[in-house]
Amino acid sequence: MRKLSLGVFAFVLGLQLFLVARVGTDIPYQDQWDVEGRNLYPAWRDGTWHAADLLRAHNEHRILWTRLLDLALFSANGQWDPLVQLAANAVLRAAGAALLAWLLARGLGRTGQWLVGAGVILVFLPHVAWLNALWGFQSSVYFVMLFSLAALALLGERERSPRRLAAGLAAGMAALLAMGAGAFVPVTLLGLAGLRAVERRSFGATGWREAWPALGLLGVAVLMRTQVPAHAALHATTAGQFFNALGRALAWPHTAMPWAALVLNLPLLLAVGGRMAGRRRAAVGEDFVLLAGGWALVAAGAMAWTRGGGNEFDAGVTVRYVDFLLLLPIANVWCAVRLMREASDVRQPLARMLAGAWGIFLLIGWLGVSAQIMRGFILPRMHDRDLPVRLAVAYQQTGDAAVFVGQPEFFRPHPNLESVRVVLDDPRMRGVLPPSFQPGQPMGPLSRAVRGLRNEVSP
To answer: Which domain covers residue 285, as residue numbers?
Structure first.
């Protein structure tokens, strides 16, 4: 198990660092200019920063761990460098993949363990979720996934020791302080408690013992909840908007076909339905699989409600949401294999045929998404990695927004370029801007190390 986890960690880390080296830049993007460049680092440097600022809401989220990581990297490096953040984020995502592989492989034989490892590596290939991999501010996504997986594994056990309970509650609280998606943990745990109650045909004392940690975390999540009036226009206001967005999210990677959500999630539905009907019992490790898939289901529902009223889902699922959905195909593959093995001898050939057809349908969608991303973004960026740098530096030198005219939206560092100008002109940021904005200044030690990696793997 240790070799499996280390292998998954190494593969996912290496692949994401390769993407960062070939495509990443040190130009901050969108929220980074406001949260880091206008507030966090200047206040840290002039002594007006307070510890309470770490818990201040950012949109609908508390991003304690992201702020701590950014301050640690800024202090250790002596300057702001999103490339350093991208390397740190790769470590976090690899740690999440390794933890997931370890949790899924428990109780399996050697062959099963290595198949799980290979599957996790395939799902965590960084190109399908490239925006988070190339946006230094998105460490919150990786923190919330890491803490959520730990909390689900610890609190989802039927029998919890006091130490396991305390660790699970701590992980759940850490997830709530990572970003708003931490609230998916208690909701998912309550779903599992409800499933077990249906299986027992009673709730009773056992149900309360299973549910109270989730209820406590949910209460904390409600108290921490923050409203953003400006985002109300993005909420789904009709059933059509909600179910269109939900269908596209649940149908990933076939996001252009919302109806595919039923097909792709059929194994999970059959596994849960069989247990509710009393036709099957939970296999070893199944409860965690359902929790992982349930977390992604709740995430899809939250996306559909909070962003279904905008136009983000008109053409599919925005790339920045994909990391929240990756647990769903993993859970469905696990359930498909499990159900196939549980089929009777008479039904085994049919079960194998259906499982194989289902797997091919999923793989076709993944290949289609991968090809679209490679052609539309990765390969063009590899051909000219530094175009965003040239555009941003040209804006720094001229102050003319026209330099971004005709360029892809992702190359524009912020929708409101005034935020960029404020940071670039702030005297408190003099000497600590990202290296591309101050070519005459010596780089920090972490910046030099990351650029050594880029020179090693880049042509």
So the answer is: 234-385
